[in-house]
Design brief:
The chain is built from 14 helices and 23 strands. A ten-stranded mixed β-sheet has the order 11-10-12-13-22-21-20-17-18-23. A seven-stranded parallel β-sheet has the order 3-2-4-1-5-6-7, with helices on both faces. The longest helix has 15 residues. The protein is elongated and about 70 Å long. About 50% of the residues are buried.
């Protein structure tokens, strides 16, 4: 199985657009493409799924650790012809300035994958070769094998770029020169690109993108870069889990045979345009621990799925759909009743906002939400929080025992009123070792936080949540 990483010197180079183009072009040639995204971002993976038909998986060495990255890559890439991994930020950008933790370079070294650098050549000529020389020699363990020059102005500009690279950095192959093309812009907003649900990319856009790739990139050389002898150990083998719409159930392992296990516990997972951010491995790990995932839409469904024993409310953009979510009174009542009955509930960021008293969206009207937590949320014109987080559980909870340490990411433009002191705080949160104070709010068996925890950072999370749901089903959860 071949593998390539598409990276860049910095954000805004055209990395995402060209990654999508390469994925789409390979898929249209009949290749099975396994898509991945370095880092905690969730918007790019949505576009990966759109063009490949396969759920894209986040790879973050700081959040999850090296062993998990190798194992999950092998798991999700199994059966594919080629894995295409989109990098994050600049190639060597990570959690700090002295290590490669959290960077694309870290993942490239872990997987032994060749790197293709997308360089914005606007207003550059021979200087682009100097830039490539620096990236190719900065870390000898990172194989910068090729470059795609983007925003090339003319045939003469292309000639100079190729000449300069051949003269100063001949071991790096020029894999294409893409001309400036305003038609390839993907709409964006404050959190980055618009989601694939909001902006699904027209067939005309994808056709044009594939045409650009066919005309200006050397796909055969791109595929040929990959070193296929690198083998990874798969610690657990399961079917690759794909989600194409909110009502498509996840596959469940058969319980028949001599080694049959107890019936899988049903966990409702919110999945629609308002709740679109969930790490794919979080779902996989819940499945492996004995869950049956029942998807529902807070936008469309009037009731929770039947016979559930737990609820997972992932992140997303509830503020963009505030009026519709607020108007779905029957579902809000169902979630309130489940929480009051002691059902285990885990909510993060957008899911957390949904559990508050409401949100003041762009119209400055407070739209009432579920109301478990007696605070209101308002959107801000500037970013409120961004970055990696580490949490330590201060007491036992639905996601682990006291002392459990987990990692994740926080990114939002909203803020809440101060939570009343009667609401228990379960997290001690740190950022790069600096204490940020308590967070992780608990009411009965409901835990909510702004932080998107990756379950791969701590195996206790999925184990504990499924165990609590099973205990609720049997009536033994207090």
């Amino acid at each position: 199985m071949k593998q390539i990483i598409i990276a860049a010197p910095h954000s805004g180079s055209g990395k995402t657009t060209l990654t999508l183009g390469i994925m789409a072009a390979l898929s249209r040639r009949g290749l099975r493409v396994a898509p991945f995204k370095v880092g905690p971002d969730f918007i790019d993976p949505g576009y990966h799924r759109l063009v490949t038909g396969t759920a894209s998986v986040n790879l973050d060495g700081w959040i999850c650790g090296h062993e998990f990255i190798r194992a999950t890559f092998a798991h999700h890439a199994a059966g594919a012809d080629i894995a295409v991994i989109e990098g994050v930020m600049g190639l060597f950008d990570g959690i700090d300035g002295v290590s490669d933790a959290g960077s694309t370079a870290e993942v490239a070294k872990l997987l032994g994958a060749p790197v293709i650098l997308v360089v914005d050549a606007r207003s550059q000529a021979r200087s682009a070769a100097a830039l490539m020389h620096g990236f190719a020699t900065f870390d000898a363990e990172v194989n910068v094998a090729g470059v795609i020059f983007n925003n090339v102005a003319s045939a003469n500009h292309e000639r100079v770029l190729r000449e300069a690279l051949a003269a100063s950095c001949p071991r790096v192959a020029v894999l294409g020169c893409v001309p400036r093309d305003a038609a390839l812009a993907i709409p964006s907003r404050h959190l980055g690109l618009m989601t694939a649900d909001e902006n699904p990319l027209s067939e005309a856009f994808l056709a044009h993108l594939c045409e650009v790739v066919d005309q200006h990139l050397d796909l055969k050389a791109i595929i040929g870069l990959s070193d296929s002898h690198h083998v990874h150990t798969v610690h657990s083998v399961h079917s690759v889990h794909q989600v194409h719409n909110v009502h498509e159930p996840a596959p469940a392992t058969s319980n028949t045979g001599a080694d049959s296990t107890p019936a899988r516990v049903k966990i409702a997972v919110a999945r629609d345009a308002a709740f679109c951010f969930v790490y794919q491995d979080n779902l996989r790990l819940l499945l492996e621990r004995g869950a049956e995932l029942c998807y529902f839409s807070p936008l469309l469904d009037s009731a929770l799925p039947p016979h559930i024993s737990g609820i997972y409310l992932p992140g997303g953009y509830p503020e963009l759909f505030a009026a519709k979510l607020a108007g779905n009174g029957s579902l809000k009542a169902g979630i309130r009743a489940a929480v009051e009955a002691g059902m285990p509930v885990y909510a993060e960021c957008g899911g957390f906002i949904y559990l508050t008293g409401g949100v003041a969206a762009d119209d400055n009207v407070v739209h009432p939400f579920v109301g478990i937590f007696p605070v209101q949320t308002r959107m801000l014109p500037r970013r409120k929080a961004l970055g990696y987080r580490e949490v330590k559980l201060l007491t036992d909870s639905v996601i682990g025992a006291q002392g459990t340490i987990a990692r994740g990411h926080e990114f939002h433009y909203s803020e809440m009123e101060e939570m009343p002191p009667g609401i228990e705080r379960l997290y001690a949160v740190t950022r790069k070792g600096v204490a940020l104070g308590p967070e992780g709010y608990s009411y009965k068996n409901c835990l909510a936080s702004y932080i998107h925890l990756h379950f791969g950072s701590s195996p206790d999370i999925a184990d504990s949540f499924v165990a609590r749901c099973k205990a609720y089903r049997t009536g033994s959860l207090t």
